[in-house]
């Protein structure tokens, strides 16, 4: 299913292998760079996979031999899998390119999505992504991750938001290289099921924030 809003095409790609999604990102990126393709966001789930960004340290990786896909985005290691909605915006950024501003807009999109479900989240200084603040349940917990790359003025990679995924997959790694904070999901925080199908249309509605 494809939805177009505010000049942005959102493609619901379903469950898609990581390497297949990466090939589609590269194809879309070339078309946007060439001016023959529209700004597009792929929205999907992956089969379970660990991906390591350029800043991943050896000690961040699984110690049990679990395979890891090395990728050219920023950031460190993370997990993708069922119950997590992944978004890959392939967008031309305005000149002059301001990557930090784009990351902040992506964070705001995710904060606004969580708010629609009644979950209060925020940024943490010095840490990317979107977080449930420290409270009586424990330290700050990351509910959405961001890892991007910009090449020739057009974005690659993107964000992931934990809806109702199995959080034990994060136990094998140091997620995003952060040892002193946890990982959570919308469902875990609210104490009720919130699925990818629930979150998907809300994310689509907030995609224009990426251009704000």
UniProtKB/TrEMBL annotation:
SUPFAM superfamilies: Class II aaRS and biotin synthetases
Site feature (Lowers pKa of active site Cys) residues: 142
Residues at which substrate binds: 73-80, 145-147, 158-160
Location of the BPL/LPL catalytic domain: 35-212
Pfam families: LplA-B_cat (PF21948)
Catalytic reaction(s) noted: octanoyl-[ACP] + L-lysyl-[protein] = N(6)-octanoyl-L-lysyl-[protein] + holo-[ACP] + H(+)
Source organism, top-level taxon: Bacteria
Record protein name field: Octanoyltransferase
């Amino acid at each position: 299913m494809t939805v177009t809003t505010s000049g942005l095409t959102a493609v619901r790609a379903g469950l898609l292998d990581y390497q297949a999604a990466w090939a589609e990102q590269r194809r879309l990126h070339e078309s946007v760079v060439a001016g023959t393709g529209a700004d597009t966001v792929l929205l999907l789930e992956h089969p379970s996979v660990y991906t390591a960004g350029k800043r991943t340290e050896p000690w961040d990786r699984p110690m049990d031999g679990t395979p890891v896909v090395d990728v050219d985005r920023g950031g460190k290691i993370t997990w993708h899998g069922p119950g997590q909605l992944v978004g890959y915006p392939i967008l031309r950024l305005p000149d002059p390119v301001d990557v930090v501003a784009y990351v902040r807009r992506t964070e705001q999109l995710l904060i606004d999505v969580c708010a629609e479900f009644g979950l209060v989240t925020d940024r943490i200084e010095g840490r990317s992504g979107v977080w449930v603040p420290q409270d009586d349940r424990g330290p700050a917990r990351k509910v959405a991750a961001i890892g991007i790359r910009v090449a020739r003025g057009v974005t690659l990679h993107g964000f992931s938001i934990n809806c109702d995924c199995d959080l034990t997959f994060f136990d094998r790694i140091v997620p995003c290289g952060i040892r002193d904070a946890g990982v959570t999901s919308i469902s875990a925080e609210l104490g009720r099921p919130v699925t990818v199908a629930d979150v998907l249309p809300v994310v689509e509605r907030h995609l224009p924030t990426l251009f704000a």
